[in-house]
Specification:
The chain is α/β, with parallel strands linked by helices and 234 residues long. It has a single domain, classed as P-loop containing nucleotide triphosphate hydrolases (Rossmann fold), CATH 3.40.50.300. The chain is 38% helix and 31% strand. Strands 5-4-6-7-3-10-11-12-13 form a nine-stranded mixed sheet. It has a two-stranded antiparallel ribbon with strand order 1-2. The radius of gyration is 17 Å and the shape is globular.
Amino acid sequence: MVGKLSAGSYDLNKWLHGGYEKDVVTVFYGGPGTGKTTLCLLAAVSQARKGNKVVFVDTEGGFSVERVKQVLAAWKDELAPEKVLEHIILLKPTSFEEQEDAFKQLGKYLKQGVSLVVVDGMAILYRLAFAAAREKNEGAERRVTALLAGQMRQLAAIARKQEIPVLVTNQVYKWEEAMKMVGGDVLPYWGKCLIELNHDRGRRVLGLRKHRSLPVKEMSFQIYEGGVRKRGFL
């Protein structure tokens, strides 16, 4: 039986009945400032402090060493932050081409005994590449989207075959009064767990929209020094 990976938060683990599933891709999606990076960071720090290696692909510059130190201090962890950080392999692509190169390197890092893969901002560089391709021709657009689909397929294979949990974040946009994920159906298709984040007038809500064994549900939450805690189950 495939186990679960700690979310780095007691309340999140309780809400998810143990944490994130190890053999699937979990997708966090929502607007800016909703807490997507925080959720990824908590899981990464939780693993790194145990001595487990984490691959963290940061496409938006959201990874913060100071935030890691803040979380560890709130947890009253005796480990030096530097000891925790040395277990996090940080990749920082700044273009979709560099993101593709980072994915080609994943196999090398996985051989080092990685316990978690994070891609924070899966489609932001894709979005820029897609816009540039649109100015050229339709064929170029399809090629860029095919590369994104290939990357998600690779992540799904890593999770399923090696039982290494994968967490990715994605942006949203409004289309005809509905919120859509960047990248169309690519991320929803490959992500077997979908968690929506909303932040409206100071109220933060997590919404479990897709899961293999849990029902659709929501949780109101707060972000604080030590990560995430519930405000009440809905």
